[in-house]
UniProtKB/TrEMBL annotation:
It comes from Lates calcarifer. One of its GO terms (cellular component) is nucleus. This is Sterile alpha motif domain containing 13. The gene is SAMD13. Pfam families: SAM_1 (PF00536). SUPFAM superfamilies: SAM/Pointed domain (SSF47769). Residues 26-74 form the SAM domain. The lineage of its organism: Eukaryota, Metazoa, Chordata, Craniata, Vertebrata.
Amino acid sequence: MEDKANGSVDNKSPVENGQMPDPANWGVADVVNYFKATGFEEQATAFQDQEIDGKSLLLMTRNDVLTGLSIKLGPALKIYEYHVKPLQTQHLKSNAS
């Protein structure tokens, strides 16, 4: 990932070096771009509307994703289980070492 002049991170691929990226320093646009890149183009706008940045993403609970973003249940479950939770786990592992 490359830092851009505006402070956002270039996130072309959701996986970097075989690992999930650490979103702790992402801005709102980075979070939106991550979900667009992973196939959730329509749902990505919910993260924009709620101003979810990387730190906020790492603090989200399952309930936050399912009810707080006004996303349909099916996509919300996939977003939490396959993206938010793994990003949180990866962040905890990388900061524990």
